[in-house]
Amino acid sequence: MSFQHIIDTPLGWMQLRGTKDHIQSAFWLEEEDTIIGMANADVEWRHDAEAQLSEYFEGKRQQFSLPLMALGSDFQIQIWEMLKLLHHGETTSYASIAEQLGDRNKSRAVGTAIGANPLLLIIPCH
Questions:
Q1: Could you tell me if residue 87 is inside a domain?
Q2: Closest of 110, 80, 77, 84 to residue 95, by C-alpha
Q3: Does 66 map to a domain?
Q4: Catalytic residue numbers?
Q5: What does pTM read for this prediction?
Q6: Which of 41, 86, 87, 111 has the least C-beta neighbours within 10 A?
C-alpha cells in the first residue's frame, strides 16, 4: 500500500510517498492546486520527515536520517547510495563517480541514474 504526505517548505510544496515504514520518493509539486483533495497519511516517517526538512531549511541539519527505500535498478541504487555519502556542500562529477565504480566510461550512465533520483533533496543530486 502506498502513502503520501505533503509538506509546505520554503521552496514550495513537497510530496513524499512511500510505504508505511519507508519513504520511496520526494518531489516538488508544481502547482498549489495539485494538493487540493490530497489527504496526508499518518505513517511512521511523517513527523520525522517534517522535523528534519524543517531543520534543514533552518540551517540546523545537513544530512537526513530517514527510513528510505528508493525504487530503481541495482545500478541506480548503487549510485544513490554513493550520493548519500557526500557531505553538505561537497560536489562531485559524473566522471568521478564512474571512476569510483572502476569505469570512467560509465559517466553518462551515472548521470542518467542521478537524473532518476526519486528522493530529491533527501539524496543530494544537482
A1: yes
A2: 110
A3: no
A4: 125
A5: 0.86
A6: 87
Q: Which three cell numbers stand for residue 45?
A: 516517517
Asked if 49 and 56 count as a contact pair (C-beta separation under 8 A), the reply is: no
* Own/partner long-range contacts of 106-113 (Cβ < 8 Å, ≥24 apart): 109/75, 110/79, 113/72, 113/73, 113/75, 113/76, 113/79, 113/80
Mind listing the pLDDT tens digit for each residue in 22-72?
999 999 998 765 665 566 778 889 999 999 999 999 999 999 999 999 999
Residue type present at position 91: T
Contacts of 50 (CB under 8 A, 6+ apart): 5, 7
CB atoms within 10 A of CB 88: 9
